[in-house]
Amino acid sequence: QITLKESGPTLVKPTQTLTLTCTFSGFSLSTTGEGVGWIRQPPGKALEWLAGIHWNGDKRYSPSLKSRLTIAKDTSKNQVFLTMTDMAPVDTAIYYCAHRPPGFYYLDYWGQGTLVTVSS
Amino acid sequence: QSVLTQPPSVSAAPGQKVTISCSGGSFNIGNNYVSWYQQLPGTAPKLLIYEDNKRPSGILDRFSGSKSGTSATLDITGLQTGDEADYYCGTWDSSLNAGVFGGGSKLTVL
Fold first, then answer.
1. pLDDT at residue A104 above 90?
2. What distance in Å separates residue A81's CA from the closest CA in chain B?
């Protein structure tokens, strides 16, 4: 059974850097084809895909946020990290991580999400 | 502005059928599989449909998906008040090299 859980600060100040951790179980990022993605959702708004990382270290980023994002993994700890620089109030959102199974793209298991508020 | 276009809201009476559309282009829906997600109020999204028309284990056959060209649809039959939620389509965009979602459709069961 696959589970994911996001953790990190709930409040960050404008211009600061946000680092979120996704801790998962039920699969391994050392297994061929496995992947994890990050998605966010501002209050009352739509889902926005941010970044993804695969078992082989391949990384993909949203073109509109690519300059601010870094995704990384620690396979031994079953963790994926997302770093977003230069945070602004518009980045206030619930941040989710999700499991991408091997094969064609979709997200089958999602974490509960963590609300990050950007405010001075 | 989402890459995929969905109607902001849809509604139908209990027991009836509703169709939610998702429109894209050749680099996303036209050449990649579509998935659908249900987001009940205050909860994380849940996978409803993957690879255009497949249901994960535990998803009722009241939910079905289809695709034609650069558009996809989600059909929900036998509507129940518990189906009231936001529904999102998603896929990969081969030009952007990124995942993309629709803007979401809020379903109201009248």
1. no
2. 18
